[in-house]
Design the sequence.
RNA sequence: GGGCGAGUUGCAGAGCGGUCAAAUGCACCUGACUGUAAAUCAGGCGACUUCGGUCUUCGGUGGUUCAAAUCCAUCCUCGCCCA
């Protein structure tokens, strides 16, 4: 894997980002010759990105760290259309205001990973609404549409899948690949962008852009995709008990983010260290070899490094400290989710089920009851034996009540 | 515009007048075993509950019936075929 001359491709391949590339040798030569500009498009369907997008962000990060210019493209325009790839159903359409709000929020997630500015290798944020919103239909059809044949579009996986499964595919969505292809051409024109990266599910869309570039402006553009990252057991990344693993701290606390990585499967540790941290490869090779319970050390490092990248060193250390106190010493960490109960209410007593629900450890009283009857609920590390227990201020230990659902989910109750 | 078919609890997908809060699979949660892992096994998985029940759900709305996810009408959405 060291046959590449460019640091970019050496790094990307060694760390496991390569899935497919339109022309590895040519891209290698170009990257070795000088800085190139590469971009990745991001959907604006939610107000925060989640771990699923992290591989993409890391690719941009490496692009920058190996001396090139990354462009993060916000899909302000394409989100109005909806990418049919990998979906059976049409995406819910968002209005302009929602999309604008999402973009504003998403942008902040890039800040810790990339250096922005106007320098040669400084990262840029671009919104494709800037050129897509103003398109004139007939003109666009004649200039761009004529380069696409329906024959080829029907052969696209995303299209075929819908048709084969007899799921609807609207003309609106059908246009998505054309717009994404056009993005590439436009970015090349505006920012001299010659490389598009993305997840393997974007391959079809990316290739369309590469070909469109050749037809419209006779330039060679490159496409590069990374594998779809799944856990060793085949599950898609990014789900926990609480839902998606968001990158925004408001959506998912640094502590929970840390825990997500801490709970990585054994078989994934090495791969994830390469993909999601900046650690040197020889160091990763050493950690990867750990076996049995020792691999937990590698997981702690993975969790600490990934959390540091996103939330900063201080927040990561705090999360690690809380995890250590909570799990290794059976104590109470200050970073756990906390709810406040008015003193009078606590003095009067609250049923445990209600309390578990309020601490968001259960969705309903019924679920709390089930949790208790299953033996999974704990109050100050003591198993709650029945759902009639009433919690009063007598349960306070140093002003805190610790509630647990299972071994991993904890919350604190304080008076306030 | 015409003909046919479909819309069920997170997803997939049974049910086709009472025994249906609704089979089964996946996902998810908890327990046991462990290493905050995986695998395996066990339990759970609409809400409320004085644990006897009560209430809300099967695209929407109105009917028929003692009784409807199941029958009828109508509307909406989607698919297939024809125009």
Sequence:
């Amino acid at each position: 894997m060291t046959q590449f001359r460019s640091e970019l491709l050496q790094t990307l391949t060694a760390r496991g980002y390569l899935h497919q590339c339109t022309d590895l040798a040519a891209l290698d030569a170009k990257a070795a010759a000088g800085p190139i500009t590469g971009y990745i498009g991001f959907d604006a369907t939610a107000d925060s990105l989640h771990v699923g997008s992290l591989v993409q962000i890391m690719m941009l990060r490496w692009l920058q760290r190996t001396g090139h210019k990354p462009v993060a493209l916000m899909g302000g325009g394409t989100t109005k259309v909806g990418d049919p790839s990998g979906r059976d159903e049409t995406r819910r359409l968002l209005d302009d205001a929602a999309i604008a709000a999402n973009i504003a929020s998403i942008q902040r997630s890039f800040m810790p990973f990339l250096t922005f500015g106007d320098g040669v290798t400084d990262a840029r944020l671009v919104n494709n609404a800037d050129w897509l919103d103003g398109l004139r239909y007939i003109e666009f059809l004649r200039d761009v549409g004529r380069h696409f044949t329906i024959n080829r579009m029907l052969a696209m996986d995303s299209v075929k899948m819908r048709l084969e499964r007899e799921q609807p595919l609207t003309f609106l969505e059908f246009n998505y690949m054309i717009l994404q292809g056009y993005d590439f051409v436009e970015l090349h024109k505006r920012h001299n962008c010659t490389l598009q990266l993305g997840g393997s599910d974007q391959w079809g869309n990316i290739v369309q852009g590469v070909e469109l570039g050749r037809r419209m402006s006779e330039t060679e553009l490159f496409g590069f995709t990374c594998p779809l990252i799944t856990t060793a057991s085949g599950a898609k990344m990014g789900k926990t008990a609480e839902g998606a693993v968001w990158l925004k701290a408001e959506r998912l606390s640094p502590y929970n983010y840390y825990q997500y990585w801490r709970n990585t499967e054994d078989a994934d540790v090495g791969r994830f260290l390469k993909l999601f941290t900046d650690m040197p490869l020889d160091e990763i090779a050493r950690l990867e070899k750990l076996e049995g319970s020792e691999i937990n050390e590698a997981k702690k490092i993975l969790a600490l490094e990934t959390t540091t990248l996103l939330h900063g060193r201080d927040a990561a250390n705090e999360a690690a400290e809380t995890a250590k106190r909570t799990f290794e010493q059976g104590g109470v960490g200050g970073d756990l989710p906390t709810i406040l109960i008015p003193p009078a209410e606590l003095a009067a007593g609250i049923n445990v089920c209600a309390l578990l629900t309020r601490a968001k450890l259960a969705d309903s009283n019924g679920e709390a009851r089930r949790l208790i009857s299953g033996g999974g609920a704990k109050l100050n590390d003591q198993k709650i034996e029945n759902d009639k227990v009433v919690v009063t201020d007598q349960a306070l230990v140093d002003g805190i009540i610790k509630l647990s659902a299972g071994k991993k989910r904890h919350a604190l109750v304080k008076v306030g």
User: Anything to note?
Assistant: Residues 166-168, 232-233, 235, 239, 241, 259, 262-269, 292-296, 299, 323, 326-328, 364-367, 369-371, 373-377, 405-408 of chain A lie near RNA strand B (CB under 10 Å from a C1').
